[in-house]
């Protein structure tokens, strides 16, 4: 009897310890922290995988565009190379040969010239997405180019973010390098005014070329009642890009700061540039200033595709600020053999809706983003090719660039020196698209 009691009394402390352990909360936060750490690691890892994917996609798309462009243009080469070999050689040189083998097609016609198409496919193994069951990401970057007999005019509008954040971590230097590389590529062989580039720097404000505001027929005075520094513009309608000379607009009092002379003298819109040296000087003069109004930048840029703006361009021609070859431009919307392309770039997101701030333009972000998309939609309805470039932009800005882009292959999400590759790909894509219109 005593032995049995002793055994039972020996078990009592063990059960008490188990009960205490069950009720204890020591270390609970550590378990939660481990779960939170794993989740944070997965979210960050997804971003890494998506950036790797985007870099590889841009590389493959650029190779495809350059390859078909070269193959289509070699029709008159005395060596008469096989266009399939040309395309394959481009991909082999980039280490992408297996992505395109057997996926090249060529059509020859005495009437319309040569058409070269390629439909490369590839995939990228993931590092972090595999934790959620996605082991690889597939990509396809088709491209087609045709050589024909007609000439094509290319009108490009570069809507470039010059807000204050472009002063961070070398962004402005990367933009200058990428933009200069782009204009050198596009304007190098420009003859007879067949390629023209309009520069639209935007921040909180957009400035029209001097002496041009008087040509607009529906331009209201500033809401402030003061005409002091009232040379900035804004718009009251956002769903149309035609009849711009009569569109309801309003003057704004430019918000001037320590960069007053820099802002006024060096960053107005510069239309219809055809010379590489002039374009390079314009790009080098860009500098960071104030906030981000993407809606304003894209709406101002849209005007320079609209033929109703001819009085403005002719005024600049008469003043010697635009080459006389561009008199009576822009072309009619319906004119054949005309490529219209907009490069819309931001490193941020719409921001000008803060209460009691001098930069306030819209009641809220939703309105500002919706107006941006409305302009892009109206441009796409007029067959303008829109290339949306998110340059180290936050999620909201990147989503807006993707929504504005004409297709997934017109959208680029870049960081650092990747911006140069994105602009190179855009230049090649525009050239390829222009060849396609020569049939």
Summary of the model, kept short:
This protein is an alpha/beta fold and 439 residues long.
In CATH terms, what is the fold-level topology of the largest domain?
Rossmann fold
CATH class of the largest domain: Alpha Beta
Strand content: 15-25%
User: Whole-Å distance between the termini?
Assistant: 108 Å
- The share of residues in helices is 40-55%
Which regions have little confidence, pLDDT < 50, spanning 5+ residues? Answer: 1-8, 258-265
Q: Calculate Rg over CA atoms.
A: 28 Å
* Number of contiguous helices: 11
CATH superfamily heading of the largest domain: von Willebrand factor, type A domain
The count of domains is 2
Shape: flat
- Quick one: biggest sheet? 6 strands, mixed
What do the pLDDT scores average to? 85
Topology as H/E string?
HHHEEEEEEHEEEEHEHHHEHEHEH
Provide the structure class.
alpha/beta
In the sheet with the most strands, the strands line up as 11-7-6-12-13-14
Provide the CATH architecture of the largest domain.
3-Layer(aba) Sandwich
């Amino acid at each position: 009897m005593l032995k049995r009691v002793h055994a039972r009394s020996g078990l009592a402390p063990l059960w008490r310890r188990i009960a205490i352990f069950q009720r204890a909360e020591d270390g609970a936060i550590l378990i939660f922290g481990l779960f939170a750490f794993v989740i944070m690691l997965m979210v960050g890892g997804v971003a890494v995988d998506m950036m790797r994917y985007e870099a590889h996609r841009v590389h493959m798309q650029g190779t495809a565009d350059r390859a078909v462009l070269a193959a289509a243009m070699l029709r008159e080469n005395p060596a008469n190379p096989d266009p399939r070999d040309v395309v394959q050689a481009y991909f082999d040189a980039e280490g992408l040969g297996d992505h395109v083998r057997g996926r090249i097609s060529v059509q020859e016609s005495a009437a319309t010239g040569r058409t070269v198409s390629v439909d490369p496919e590839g995939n990228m193994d993931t590092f972090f997405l595999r934790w959620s069951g996605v082991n690889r990401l597939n990509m396809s970057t088709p491209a087609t180019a045709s050589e024909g007999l007609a000439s094509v005019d290319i009108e490009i509008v570069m809507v470039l973010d010059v807000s204050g954040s472009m002063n961070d971590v070398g962004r402005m230097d990367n933009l200058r390098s990428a933009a200069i590389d782009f204009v050198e590529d596009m304007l190098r062989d420009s003859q007879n005014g067949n390629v023209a580039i309009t520069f639209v720097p935007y921040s909180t404000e957009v400035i029209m070329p001097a002496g041009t505001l008087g040509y607009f027929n529906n331009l209201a005075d500033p809401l402030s009642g003061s005409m002091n520094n009232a040379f900035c513009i804004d718009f009251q309608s956002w769903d149309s890009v035609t009849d711009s000379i009569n569109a309801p607009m309003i003057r704004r009092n430019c918000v001037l700061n320590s960069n007053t002379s820099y802002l006024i003298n060096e960053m107005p819109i510069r239309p219809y540039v055809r010379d590489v040296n002039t374009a390079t000087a314009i790009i080098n003069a860009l500098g960071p200033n104030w906030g981000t109004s993407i809606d304003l930048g894209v709406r101002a840029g849209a005007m320079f595709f609209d033929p109703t703006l001819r009085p403005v361009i002719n005024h600049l021609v008469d003043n010697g600020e635009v080459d006389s070859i561009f008199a009576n431009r822009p072309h009619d919307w319906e004119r054949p053999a005309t490529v219209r392309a907009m490069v819309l770039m931001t490193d941020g997101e719409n921001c000008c809706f803060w209460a009691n701030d001098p930069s306030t333009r819209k009641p809220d972000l939703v309105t500002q983003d919706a107006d941006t998309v409305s302009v892009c939609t109206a441009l796409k309805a007029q067959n303008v090719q829109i290339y949306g470039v998110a340059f180290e932009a936050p999620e909201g800005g990147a989503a807006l660039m993707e929504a504005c882009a004409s297709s997934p292959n017109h959208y680029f999400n870049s960081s650092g020196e990747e911006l140069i590759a994105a602009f190179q790909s855009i230049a090649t894509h525009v050239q390829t698209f222009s060849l396609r219109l020569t049939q």
